[in-house]
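Possible regression after last week's pipeline update?

I re-ran a chain I had predicted before the update to compare outputs. Posting the input and the new output here so someone can diff against the archived version. Not blocking, just want to make sure nothing changed silently.
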Amino acid sequence: MSEIRPRPVFNCQQCGDCCVGRGGIFVRPQEVEEMAALLKMTTEEFCDRYVEVSSQGPRLATANGFCVFLQDNRCRVHPVKPFICRQWPFLPALLVDAEELEQAKGACPGIDPACPHEDFVDAAMGRAEEG
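New output (post-update):
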């Protein structure tokens, strides 16, 4: 059993780096509907303006390499942001591969650089039980 950690394994710094959209921020139909409703748009209007078609599925558009909804380091659709965004940083790749976590620590200032992989996985499991 791990000791009590003096600080959380992740504390968002609102830097926007996770909104860079590398590989794409893929969206599900329900997420599109929720974001469109939040922005008071029809689903069709939302898709025409903010969704791109890719060989892997629909994804949010980007502007200057960042998610189109990142504005002043804040997410304009935060209350209904896509699942992949809600997962961050507890993505499957980081949970199964300690080296991936080490790379993410270099990119995300919100991940505790001293956090061992085991503690990171434990935190993700605790988070899953809460949700």
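Follow-up from reviewer: compared with the archived run. The radius of gyration is 16 Å. Marking as no regression found.
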